[in-house]
Design goal:
By secondary structure, the chain is an alpha+beta fold. Strands 1, 2, 3, 4, 5, 6, 13 and 14 form an eight-stranded mixed sheet that branches. Helices cover 28% and strands 24% of the residues. Helix 3 crosses helix 5. 35% of the residues are buried. The longest helix has 25 residues. It has two domains: 93 residues, Pseudouridine synthase (2-Layer Sandwich), CATH 3.30.2350.20; 158 residues, Pseudouridine synthase, CATH 3.30.2350.20.
């Protein structure tokens, strides 16, 4: 189960209807399309903060520009409207603090081993992997993304250029795969929480990412990184991304070269590939573990952009995620929190 932790709570007044919806077996764009039909508006006018997994019980807010407070026209199996309200503006993409997860664990062989692992994740943080659902059912959305900017070919490239949603999904998957490769190196070399000269750090009160040139002179920043009050970041490559320097920059350049991608190609991605920086790790919060007759229920909070599969991977000691090549891609929205 996944429940959105919203950044904006509808105030009860305004021209946009907010719907708190629970869904099963439906992805977020499906529900948005159904809302557009039910209220006779363009799908682009339907707002939601983030994508939620199809194969889960999920709850999230949607917004529709209408004065109506009647959602009876929404007839979609697996979808329930739990609450209605109004607000003054459309729900923006990304307007969420994070997500709360509840996951049932069956067949646990050693309950006693879970608590120390969870304690370790609380202390050290969780590697901020992009989960396999980011890369599609066949795991090759990133290959399609590379083809869209001229770094390879793909049979669906022409279709994706016309399909805005698929194009955005594929380009994002390309960024995500490159990020995962750099994160894998950082984890394997024991540098997950380390601050190095040339790193780019996200500091909450700053408008732009901070480039760190002299770690030795900035004990305060090192302390804040250790306390999860600031975050060392990896690249979501793009034409407007803040660049690292020194050794971090060299590692990022090496990943691009091994992938056959030049920085100039990201311009072809347009506004979908402007780029940003993403934290290499996140803090695990709100952890609870309880026994039920049919297994353990693990619950926790994740920040926006975090994947529950990152937690499960650490608990089951699986390997770092791969993005395997396949013959034909299939778009999958997945549980991007």
């Amino acid at each position: 189960m996944v429940e959105e932790l919203p950044e904006v709570i509808p105030c009860g007044e305004g021209e946009h209807l907010y719907l708190w919806i629970e869904k099963r077996g439906r992805d977020t764009p499906e529900v948005a399309q159904a809302l557009a039909r039910a209220f006779s508006v363009s799908p682009r006018e339907v707002g939601y903060a983030g994508l939620k997994d199809r194969q889960a019980v999920t709850r999230q807010w949607f917004s529709v520009p209408t004065p109506s407070a009647d959602a009876s026209a929404l007839a979609l199996p697996g979808v329930r409207v739990l609450e209605l309200s109004h607000h003054g503006h459309k729900l923006r993409t990304g307007a969420l603090r994070g997500n709360r997860f509840w996951i049932r664990l069956r067949g646990v062989r050693d309950r006693g081993a879970l608590e120390p692992l969870l304690d370790q994740l609380r202390a050290q943080g969780v590697p901020n992997w992009f989960g396999p659902q980011r890369f599609g059912r066949r795991g090759d959305n990133a290959l399609l993304g590379a083809a869209l900017i001229g770094a390879g070919s793909h049979p669906l490239a022409v279709r994706a250029q016309r399909d805005g949603f698929l194009r955005k999904l594929a380009l994002s998957a390309l960024q995500s795969e490159l990020f995962n490769r750099l994160l894998a190196a950082r984890v394997s070399e024991g540098r997950l929480s380390a601050l190095e000269p040339g790193d780019v750090v996200l500091v909450p009160e700053d408008q732009r990412p901070l480039l760190v040139r002299d770690v030795a002179r900035d004990d305060a920043l090192t302390t804040r990184v250790a306390a999860f009050e600031a975050a060392v970041t990896g690249p979501m490559f793009g034409s407007k991304m803040r660049e690292a320097e020194g050794l971090p920059a060299a590692r990022e350049q090496e990943v691009l070269e091994l992938s056959g991608i030049s920085r100039e190609l990201f311009v072809r991605g347009g506004r979908e590939l402007r780029g940003t920086r993403r934290p290499y790790r996140f803090k695990l919060a709100g952890v609870d573990l309880r026994e039920e007759p049919d297994g353990l229920v693990l619950s926790f909070d994740l920040p926006a952009g975090g994947y529950a599969t990152s937690i499960l991977r650490e608990l089951t000691r699986e390997a770092a995620p791969e993005t395997p090549e396949a013959e034909a891609p299939e778009a999958e929205t997945g549980a991007e929190a």
